[in-house]
Amino acid sequence: MEKPKKILAVNFGGIGDEILFLPALSSLKKEFPDAKITLALEPRSKSVKDLSNLIDDVICIDIKGKNKYQELIKFVFKAMTGGFDMVFSSGANSLIPLLLFMTGIKKRYGFESGFGNGILSRFLLTKAVKLEKQQYASAMYHELVTPVTDHKTLYPEIDAGDIEKEPNSVLVHPGVSKMSVVKHMVKTWSPEVWAELVKKVLETGKKVYLIGGPDDKDCIEKIVEIVGDVPNFENLYGTTKNIMDLARLTKRAEILICSDSAPMHIGVGVGTKTLALFGPTDEKKLIPENEKYIAIKNTSCTCRPCLWDKRQTTCKELDCLKIDLNEVVKLL
After folding, report:
1. Residue 167 half-sphere exposure, CB side, CA atoms within 13 Å?
2. 304 phi/psi in degrees, rounded to 5
């Protein structure tokens, strides 16, 4: 196979999706170290470039905005004129094979999709890869690059620099993405429950740092109000200026406790022991099976996981989020 000089990767989604996509890019870089990689993504996720040296450039396509079809035309034009030798797309939409074909890029790889059980993708793509959703998302994305490389990168890798761990430190990030809130997907505890967990962690003698993004302001303020001004508890809200600041804080911490959200993927990416809260979502798809990365879940709730596969919003009962906090503390 002729070595590509420029590779285009396409992965639309939130910042967590982009972090999960990094192993695929890593294996491509190992196979083609001299190739430049451009990632087409949504504007809200462009900061992933700050977390990895694998990405040489980004193309922002606002496919969820008001001008969706204009944005797709823009994508095709940029892909056509970008001089790319290969393109890999994670999308399973029926239009993806046609869009990739329209770019004129010689080597095109994507998931089987489209009409007639994927016949369109098999006809228009160089290789249509079978989509296996019932696995860790990074592994699912990685299958896209298996036609061109034998390299296998298991987890996202984020280079946050050489940072020493702070002994007995726990970083708590209670927030979820704004998109989850807008879509009525309740995936985290109330501030009151998070505050109770912080108190229990402090009772073990550990130091707790509280952190959150701009959307978490009310939640953070409520937790601080409940916990109060006590020893070994520090509110770091507002101290991070960008996603790399969060990555460095996460790497410094001995343990991260968070919900199913982007900070969880950052925890995995920097190799910090991570306890992630999973209510209605499926931990098998979103966190590696590894003793270092632990899903906090209600094992007695038989209806979970339900979100996405069975329903698009969460139920009112939320039994899946009723978890004994003492059991969580035992995981520290």
Report:
1. 1
2. -95, 155
132 class by beta-carbon count within 10 Å (0-12 exposed, 13-18 middle, 19+ buried)? exposed
Distance CA 135, CA 72 (A): 29
Between CA 188 and CA 176 the distance in angstroms is 7
Using a cut of 0.70, tell me whether the model's pTM lies above it: yes
Q: Say if 6-145 and 169-329 have the same CATH topology.
A: yes
CATH 3.40.50.2000 matches 169-329: yes
Asked if the peptide bond before residue 147 counts as cis, ω within 30 degrees of 0, the response is no
Residue ranges of the domains in the chain? 6-145, 169-329
pLDDT one-digit tens code per residue, 223-252: 999 999 999 999 999 999 999 999 999 999
pLDDT tens digits along 36-79:
999 999 999 999 999 999 999 999 999 988 899 899 999 999 99
Where are any strands of DSSP class E within 53-159? 57-60, 86-89, 107-111, 127-129
- Domain covering 6-145, topology: Rossmann fold (3.40.50)
How confident is the model over 257-293, as pLDDT tens digits?
999 999 999 999 999 999 999 988 889 999 998 999 9
